[in-house]
Design a protein that fits this description.
alpha+beta; SH3 type barrels; 5-stranded antiparallel beta sheet; 2 helices; globular; Transcriptional_repressor_C; Ferrous iron transport protein A
Amino acid sequence: MTLDRLGIGAPARIKSVTWDLIAPEEAKRLRALGVDVDSELTVSHRGIFGGGDPIAITLGNMTIALRRSHARAIAVEAL
């Protein structure tokens, strides 16, 4: 399952990230924020306009907003 399909509040672990689908500068920023394999997260909010963009995830003590296209590049497993 990809992150864009994960339900709000459901805990998950990142299994893989297809970095080729994300622009290099954006991928670097996401890695710096801790978005990488084995990180645990939850979806905390989805935008109501434009097909649900952005998606807010809670990763550790941070809340990070992601584009839906970025979330599609992140494979997760529910915990």
